[in-house]
Amino acid sequence: MSSQKAANKIVLAYSGGLDTSLILKWLQETYKAQVITFTADLGQGDELEGTRKKAQDGGAEEIYIKDLREEFVRDYVFPMFRANALYEGAYLLGTSIARPLIAKYLIDIASQTGAQIIAHGATGKGNDQIRFELSAYALDPHIKIIAPWREWSFKSRTDLLAFAKAKNIPVPTDKKGEAPFSVDSNLLHSSSEGKILEDPWCEAPEDVYQRTISPMNAPDNVTEITIGFEKGDPVSLDHVSLSPANMLSKLNELGKENGIGRVDLVENRFLGMKNRGIYETPGGSILYQTRRAVESLTLDREAAHLKEDLAPRYARLVYNGFWFSPEREMLQALIDESQKNVTGEVRVKLYKGNIILTGRRSPKTLYSSQIVTFEDDQGAYNQKDAEGFIRLQALRLRQEAARKQTENPLKKDNNEKKNIRNEKKT
Known about the structure:
By secondary structure, this protein is of the alpha/beta class. 43% of the residues lie in helices and 18% in strands. It is built from 14 helices and 14 strands.
């Protein structure tokens, strides 16, 4: 720490929340450094309100706030969705995918300002410290990183609140006047952790949810929409072209109104512990289902199955912080190649938490009604061909069955005797 204390500039990933406000003050006092704050606007909405003033009041030397919504969705969310990435079968990776972009700008601002150190507010128990730091080192192998949660002497939230009070740092409260849940939000999702959610048997109270209404309270009427895709990415909603960020925003609104996208998940963190979180991904849930519908028409069977094999691997790479790794980039190249024909339209009905697929079509479809029909296919398919196909597929199975009978002749004799008895009965 002594060598780091000599540093005069630190770039801090700053959300404006309690933790990073405390960290801003702690860095100034502990490292005697000029602290430059960076806040990424990723679509978190009201959370950004007053961020600049909070940083000013906290004594930040310089303040950077960047609107990264389009870049976030275009260059991070959409490429990840092309991979059908879903962590442990449920989590659409809303927090995970934001961290490499934030790290990228921390490194950029450090380069611009001459800072040699960056800092973040992730705890020593979570995944975000790994995601921030792996991303930063992949972009700048010489960068130094401060993680206050791994250094300071505070042992609990109570200790932090006492420090905040001593330094006149405002402490936010929820509607009940209590300390809020630990929340992360962006244009893709919101996540909530802590407090009562630490008991996985306790039902999440309704006031935890921020991005969705309860499916039980959703309207009784159906919302029907059509989404257009080109090369794997959504480009239009009800035949109106939209930019990536605007597309996800519109889908979020529709998902929220219809109670779509809630997940209550106990997941396995990279560090080894299990954690319970409440995730809301309204627009992302709609996008995930509709994208797969276009792929069902346009991807070759083996290409589709290969993607299914790779999707969990890709999801783990994103979850564990390896966005800038060579293996993720290799996978991305393969996945993007698979998407060149994933173009078409999907129609769905949204109703009380459900995404109901009602139609899909594509100018590049591999689906042939003439081949698959139960009616006269006019010679498009010769059903007799299936006999040879089945016999070839069965060849190894028949050989295995014959070997088992050879290895266990007693069983073969018993089977023969049983067949003779059955023949006598008939």
